[in-house]
Design brief:
This protein is α/β, with parallel strands linked by helices. It folds into two domains: 19-175 and 349-386, Medium-chain alcohol dehydrogenases, catalytic domain (Quinone Oxidoreductase, Chain A, domain 1, Alpha-Beta Complex); 181-326, 3-Layer(aba) Sandwich (Rossmann fold). Helix content is 26%, strand content 22%. The protein is built from twelve helices and 17 strands. The protein has helices spanning 33-36, 63-70, 124-129, 169-172, 176-189, 208-218, 232-238, 255-269, 286-292, 315-318, 332-343, 360-368; strands at 19-25, 37-43, 51-60, 92-99, 111-114, 117-118, 138-139, 152-156, 160-162, 197-200, 221-226, 242-245, 276-279, 298-301, 323-326, 351-356, 375-379. Strands 3, 4, 5, 8, 9, 16 and 17 form a seven-stranded mixed beta sheet that branches. Helix 9 links the parallel strand 13 and strand 14. Helix 5 packs across helix 11 and helix 8 (255-269) packs across helix 9. The longest helix has 15 residues, at 255-269. The two termini are 31 Å apart. Bound molecules: NADP nicotinamide-adenine-dinucleotide phosphate.
Length: 388
Amino acid sequence: MKRLELGIVPERPGVLPEKMLAWVIRPEREGEPRKAMQVEDMPVPEVGPNEVLVLTMAAGVNFNGVWAARGLPVSTIKMHPSEPFHIAGSDSSGIVWKVGSEVRRWKPGDHVITHCNQSCGHCAECNGLDPMACEQQKIWGYESNWGSFAQFHKVQAQQLLAKPTHLSWEESASYGLTFFTAYRMLIDQADLKAGDNVLIWGAAGGLGIFAIQICRLVGANPIAVIGSSDKEPLVRELGASMIIDRKKFDFSKGTEASRAFGSEIRKLTGGKDPDIVFEHVGKETFPTSVLVAKRFGKIVICGATSGYELNFDVRYLWMRQKQIIGSHFANAYQAERANRLIIEKKIRPVLDQVFPFERTAEAHQLMHENKHKGKLGIRVQAPQATVG
Ligand SMILES: NC(=O)c1ccc[n+]([C@@H]2O[C@H](COP(=O)([O-])OP(=O)(O)OC[C@H]3O[C@@H](n4cnc5c(N)ncnc54)[C@H](OP(=O)(O)O)[C@@H]3O)[C@@H](O)[C@H]2O)c1
């Protein structure tokens, strides 16, 4: 068989075609997602001893696919020079299709989702500290190749997690990267406690929808920041009652606008400053985040959508003894614990739109233009009827 038709699951797991369809980024066309990502016939990848080949039922769109398409701030293709093309995609759901000779925990036919952290598995950091501290740590589908925007994807066996049985394939592929990141940021890095006031930038975005739910689950108070009023019903439904429209503040005016924003927060909280600021916007919000955090408060940051060179008044940091904490994705243990909250229905994915495989580049373009809310899904081999 040359290749599988889209939307079809062969009856017997393990049947391998010669080729697969994949959305491929190449160095000569890096730029806007709608041009950079193109469908090509690619070979089905070989698996090593500790790797697994998964038939992609659905994939999830993330901001890292936008960075990969644009080749900014660095070209992802240069991160794997022996394979000078990039198949993006760091979230998936699927069926285990083939396992490497050392894989014991999974077998062909298992229904799985993936977490996107890859590490060597052999060093002291992997075995005693945290795989996120491994010198070879990589985000699969961003820093490494063979991501989920293809009919098959290749992962390390430790990346697999059980698919929640109550969710569709598309919903199951929609939450891993952002939920597990938000979980590590708040639970492990910022040590979130009941009663904390938490300022959440981009509250209706991929990270924000989970930050709100984690706060509610723990008994903390989310303060949701949104950039347009049509996002208000969603953040309210997820459990935020304190909501701020950031467009009412002209942050280009500097400290004056940040102070007015801080006053708005205090109006909502009854005079309290945020114990934790949940940051991922970077350049345009970071000075405000440092200013408005409570004395001894924490700013936990995992990204920089608006720019990564940050300029802020450090006096507000040291004199009020605040902490800036960097955070990056999650390890397998954190991913497993967070996934349990989905299986137990304590946290839910927010899948706003599902696109057919053929419209993968378009979905990335929407995210690039901030014209989405919640998460965007891509249907690959899942038959249409499974959309939840
Ligand atoms: N290190 C990691 O492991 C990790 C993991 C996940 C994501 N990230 C990074 O985190 C960032 C956010 O990811 P995401 O999935 O949540 O993206 P997303 O779905 O696009 O959501 C980001 C939200 O940020 C808000 N925003 C955009 N520009 C803004 C600005 N200038 N000022 C204030 N708010 C702004 C938007 O909300 P409003 O317009 O409604 O305010 C948007 O919904 C990305 O840069 C991503 O690469 C890093």
